[in-house]
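anyone seen this seq b4? input:
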Amino acid sequence: MEKKHNEKNLKIFNFLFFLNPLILALIAIYMKRSLSYQPSPEFYEINRNMRIVQYFLYLSGLTVFFFIDGILNILRKRIQLKNLPISPLLLNIITLAILDYIALSGFLGFLISGNISWVIIFCAISFFSGFRFFPIRRSTKEMHA
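predicted toks r here
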């Protein structure tokens, strides 16, 4: 009974994590088309600090995308060193939350620069990267074994 409850909760969490990049992309599209969102050029072109924040968001989002396996290995090792009990289901949720950072960094970059292609690309990367970690029925059986 508990196994089915865990699988149901996992499906709900995964669905919510998959919706997040889509929601952020739709909000950005709405802001750009309907609200004509475009920050002042002085805000992101002249202000050196905003440019640094923008580059940090861009590079950190790409770093998560390219090095997600390394990030997860470091997390697993730290958890094992501290002998903390962690279920594979929780690790899956943590993984999808880390992948959601890609979409979030793209959206924040959009808020800084108004570049719609940036948020769309990052949200697409986040959305499609999540499929790799989406637990299918076969892998959830392995999690409980």
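Residues 138-145 have pLDDT under 50 and may be disordered. Helices lie at 2-33, 41-46, 48-66, 68-81, 88-113, 116-133, 137-144. kinda curious what u guys think
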